[in-house]
Design brief:
Order of helices and strands: EHEHEEEHEHEHEHEE
Strand order of the largest sheet: 3-2-1-7-8-10-9
Radius of gyration: 17 Å
Structural class: alpha/beta
Largest sheet: 7 strands, mixed
Distance between the termini: 21 Å
Length: about 210
C-alpha cells in the first residue's frame, strides 16, 4: 500500500492528484474554514484522511496567522515580515508593484500542532512514498519533526526561502535545506522558484 502525506492541503488541488497516484493520502490543513471544505470534498473517499493539525517540532497549541487573500495559502505559524513586504523591497526598485495582498494577516487563532513522528507512530505508518510539504516557513521543521523516522521517506518536496524572507523568525532557507537533505540521505532531483523568485521548491529523493 502506497502512502502520501500532504502537509498544507489548502483547497485540495494537489490532493486530487495524490489520490490518483497513491493508495492513501493523509492530508493536514489547520485552517478551520479550509479543513471543513476538505472534509466535505472527500467525505465519500476512503483513500483520503484529513486532519486539522499544523505539523511542527512539538505537540502543542500555537497561534496561526490567517491570510484570506488569494487561496489562503500564505497563512502561517509565523508572523509576516511586513517591513520588507510593505517597504518596496519585494520587487525590483523600478517596479510599481510593491505589495501582494495575500501576504498580510487578516486574523489569527490557536491551532493544535503535532510532530510527524508521533503521527506516523500513532497510525503505524512504516513507509512514506511521497511527502509533500507546503508549510509556509516551517518546512524544514516538518522534516525534523520526523526525527529518526525521516529514513522511511522515499521522496517529496519542500518549499523554502531563497530571497527576501516572507515570515519572521524562520530557519527555512535553501542554504539550510540542501545540506540537511543531503546529510539525511536524500538527493535533490529538481527545483523551481515562485513567489516572484523569493521561494524555491526542492524535489528530493532517497539516495
Amino acid at each position: 500500500m502506497t502512502t502520501c502525506i500532504e502537509v498544507g492541503a489548502n483547497q485540495g488541488t494537489d490532493t486530487d492528484r495524490f489520490v490518483e497516484q497513491y493508495d492513501r493520502v493523509f492530508a493536514f490543513e489547520p485552517i478551520h474554514e479550509l479543513y471543513a471544505k476538505l472534509c466535505e470534498k472527500y467525505k465519500f473517499n476512503s483513500q483520503v484522511h484529513i486532519f486539522p493539525f499544523a505539523i511542527d517540532i512539538e505537540n502543542s497549541f500555537k497561534n496561526f496567522n490567517i491570510s484570506t487573500g488569494y487561496d489562503w495559502g500564505s497563512s502561517s505559524l509565523f508572523d509576516f515580515n511586513t517591513k520588507d513586504i510593505l517597504g518596496g523591497k519585494w520587487m525590483p526598485p523600478d517596479s510599481e508593484y510593491e505589495f501582494r495582498a495575500d501576504l498580510a494577516k487578516d486574523h489569527s487563532y490557536t491551532v493544535p500542532t503535532i510532530t510527524l513522528y508521533d503521527f506516523i507512530t500513532l497510525y503505524n505508518i512504516s513507509k512514506i512514498d511521497y511527502l509533500h510539504i507546503d508549510a509556509q516557513g516551517n518546512d524544514i521543521n516538518v522534516l525534523k519533526s520526523l526525527k529518526d523516522k525521516l529514513s522511511i521517506v522515499q521522496s517529496g518536496v519542500i518549499e523554502v526561502s531563497c530571497g527576501l524572507e516572507i515570515y519572521l523568525g524562520t530557519q527555512n532557507r535553501v542554504e539550510d535545506a540542501i545540506p540537511f537533505l543531503n546529510s539525511n540521505g536524500f538527493s535533490i532531483t529538481d527545483s523551481f522558484t515562485q513567489t516572484e523568485g523569493h521561494e524555491i521548491n526542492l524535489f528530493f529523493k532517497k539516495k
